[in-house]
User: What shape does this take?
Amino acid sequence: MNRFPLSLNVRLLNGGELALLLTDFVYHDPDHGLVQVPGNFKTDFASVRPVRNIAVGVLALSLVVGWFLPTLGALLGTAGFGILALYASVVGYGNAAATIHDRLYYTAELSRKAADQVFLNALRSSGVARWRAWLMWAGVRLGGFRRYGSYRWRGVSGSK
Assistant: This one.
């Protein structure tokens, strides 16, 4: 069974920061049934840009600190590159699953835990590697609490 029977059809907005869904989109979750996203819904896909910004900040800090405390600067630089590697391992993956997840967070029609489980299922259904899907799932479990049920986050909107 194809869990994504319709193609993800979007138009990128705001330099690629957001995407506008041009047609309806659906996902058949094995645990929670049919999840529907109406056309005209806006998504930011997987919200990993903050991870990149943190990496750049830590790397910049390592340069400054390295002038005065070389060992600490090197440690911060290593951490910055590690964070950058984490960002690189997830950016650009799972756009279909992230669209479903954004809609579930927007509507809060499922609990946050259930929405995150749907995200993990959708990532695996779309062919994302198990380790990468788990890493992305862990990211939303750790950092998604601020956005759950908040339909005003970062300009993302749709009909509730």
User: Anything to note?
Assistant: The first strand starts at residue 10 and ends at 13.
